Amino acid sequence: MLSIAYLGLIIFIVIFELTRRKDTLFDFLSLFHLFFILLYPVPGFFITSLAGNYEVFDPHVIKLSVYDIQYSIQVPIAIFITYFLVIFGYYSPSAFKYGSIINITSRSNRIFWITTTGILFLGILAVYVYSSQYGGIVEAIANANFIRTGSVERQALGFFIRLVYFNFFAAYLIASWLFIKKINVKISFYGFYLH
Prior knowledge:
195 residues, mainly alpha
């Protein structure tokens, strides 16, 4: 039942993103939609869909019963309310009022790439340092469920997980350079060219 609600939210967000009027191909709300879908409804959909299939997902790893995962409505309600509050805030009159007085000055490409590379370096370094306490990146990914549930003892390097979000900022800066600046990049994909 809840998996249908998550799937409905995903479909709604995709349709809303494709049909809404935008000044550029990729804006702040597009980035929010991308991160929101990947962080909330998609994992919720998979967890609620696979809760009864013990070969793929064991709900006891996250210390919940199958009934709690499939029928507890508090988390989906919080996700839906959060999404619609963000949309309401994005389109509110005060957002347009304050957005019109913000002036973003452009910088040179050199400063932009130095800043983006520095942020990306910090994010990748944070991933490396954080995962080194679990035996490296491959081991950390293999034991991700156990790390999240606390089955694996955490070390003092847990602070570095907060710096992983620098990768999101760097990805957004690169996307803004590609889409908002409308730089024409020619990419060959099996003989087809994308502009």
